[in-house]
Amino acid sequence: MAYSPKRHPRPRQGSGRTPEFPLAAPSRCFKPGIRDYYEKLAVMRAVLGTTSYPDLAKTVFGRRADLAEQARTEERIKLAADMMRKGSKPTRKGPWEEFWDALPQALRLHESITGTRLVECSADEFAALFEEPTQNQAAVEAISRVRRAQRIGLQAVSTATRNTTTSPLFGFDIHVGNQLPIQTLEDGLRAGKIDQAHHYLDPGSARSWTSLILASHYENYERCQLSLEKMLSDTRFLEAVATSRPTAAVLLAGGGAPTKDKAILSRLLSQPHLENSTLNYFILDISFYMLESTMTWLRGYISQTKLFRNATLRAFRTNVLELGQGERDEFHRTGAALFIMTGGTIGNLPEALAMASLNRAAQRGDLFLVGIDTIDGQATGIEIANAYRTPELDALLRPAVQAALNLAESTEPVDTALMRKTFTLTQESEVPDTNCVAATLEISGKRLTLFTSARYLEPRFKAFVESKGWEWLSTIAAGDRPHFKQLLFRRN
Asked: Mind listing the pLDDT tens digit for each residue in 215-248?
């Protein structure tokens, strides 16, 4: 299969493609002078509903009557926004000190609270200052998201390279396959089940996905990363890599997980057989927006850290269920390949089709590392379903559900419809004895499946993959969540 590269321009400041507010401390930057600065920034953003540094400065200044007129000057806003990016402790009179003096009133805190106190207190103390329950909850959630980003290594990388024309962020290629067969929403309505790819085809999908994986009640991403890092350090994995000597890594449906990419790149590039060679790193996904998000983050990270210089990153917008000889040739130009599917993604796909596609792209001696969530006697269907009752998931589903309502000529508000969705256990999985949760919604009298997610018994899943021509090599579980596992196989 031939691919045509699409040149992707560097995101413009304020374009909305990458968040201007950092999720956590950026890589290789000075330490801010303000205590728990990034947590406090996240709280301000959540409570005030701002989307950029200038907007935050304008909002805070504008809520103080004595500063409102001055706040209208672009220079004043620019000076405060520039200091906001640095996080320096205010030391002299000027827009930055006035910003902190005006902040308590803007946040509607008690009149006794001063800007100095906000600068010097901890993030948890900052959140506790909000007496109104909704604001307090928003502050707590914002801090939780930043701390999870810190734990998984999702540092901000875009701000330091945005204005550098020589940066790798200046442009990158996203290659597009000749054929991208995907069911239309209209066909999905008729069939009673929509293709889950539609949830990632909206321009806001990458941002919604990031919000979901950083939500305090969503643990799958972090648990998957923990088990993945354990597998990458395991002796059996390293022995398998030393034997197969892969010169390519292929992330299947891999958009939206840059911290996992970072872990994989770090481990593979430290292997002896790649010491003087280039690793071809392919990220495959149906969603341009998920690829864009991942590539932007990785290129920014590489620019800041100077790491992974002997890796060639390539993004392919393609359907991972439709791989063939063209992809097989591309992945094996210089040697064997390591195929990786993380995050329990295979549980969202028709497993037999996924394995058939993988087999068309793989050759003897290749490795396959796959992450799955298991039941293994510990998780009931109700517990699994409850993990999906989150506002962040609703935000991810909203565009496709709105489109489905429009096609059905329904006037019901999309948020009302999402509140009606139900979760049921089905037998749709092709792996025996699997708990498969289906999220369904009735639209105009017809039930529509929005997505399915499978949880496996490990022995059954292992036997299923082995029946497709792969030899099991190893299984690693996450420490405090042993039901999330990584399995390693070699192609026979």
From this structure: 877 778 888 888 999 999 999 999 999 999 999 9
Residue partners of 60: CB distance under 8 A and separation at least 6? 44, 48, 99, 102, 103, 106
What SS3 class is residue 118? helix
Please choose, from the candidates 490, 485, 445, the residue with its C-alpha nearest in 3D space to the C-alpha of residue 469: 490
In the numeric block, the tokens 């911290």 are attached to 259
Q: Which pLDDT tens digit goes with each residue over 139-179? A: 998 888 888 888 877 765 543 334 333 333 335 677 776 55
Closest to 372 (Cα-Cα) out of 279, 453, 313: 453
Euclidean distance between CA atoms 425 and 454, whole angstroms: 9
- Rounded to an integer, what distance in angstroms lies between the CA atom of residue 125 and that of residue 279? 46
Regions of the chain with pLDDT less than 50: 1-22, 24-30, 71, 158-170
28: left (phi over 0), alpha (psi -120 to 50) or beta: left
Q: Bridge partners of 374?
A: 456
Q: What is the per-residue pLDDT across 83-111, written as a single tens digit (0 to 9) for each? A: 888 888 887 778 888 889 889 999 999 99
Nearest to 249 by CA among 161, 306, 312, 165: 312
| Residue whose token pair is 């000076």 | 79
Longest dimension (CA), the chain: 75
Sign of CA dihedral 211, 214, 216, 217: positive
Question: Parallel, antiparallel, or unpaired: how do β-strands 246-251 and 446-455 relate?
Answer: unpaired
pLDDT at 55 (0 to 100): 85
The closest of 301, 299, 341, 386 to 486, measured between CA atoms, is 341
Alpha carbons 490 and 492: distance in angstroms, whole number: 6
CA-CA distance, 384 to 453, in Å (whole number)?
Answer: 9
Joined together, the tokens standing for residue 51 give: 């989307």
The partner residues of 491 in beta bridges, in order of sequence, read 470
79 within 8 A of 73, measured Cβ to Cβ: no
Q: What is the DSSP string of 47-70?
A: HHT--SHHHHHHHHHHTSHHHHHH
Q: How far apart are CA 441 and CA 188, in angstroms?
A: 13
- Write down how long the chain is: 492
Pairing of strands 171-177, 311-317: parallel
* Spatial separation of the C-alpha atoms in residues 399 and 384, rounded to whole Å: 24
Whole-angstrom Cα distance, residue 440 to residue 80?
48
Ordered alpha helix ranges (H), 234-342 = 235-244, 258-268, 288-305, 325-331
CA distance 113 to 202: 42
Q: b/e for 242-278, b at 16 or more Cβ within 10 A? A: eebebbbbbbbbbbbbbbbbbbbbebbbeeeebeeee
Contacts of 463 (CB under 8 A, 6+ apart): none
What pLDDT is stored for residue 6 in this prediction?
42
d(CA 242, CA 235): 10
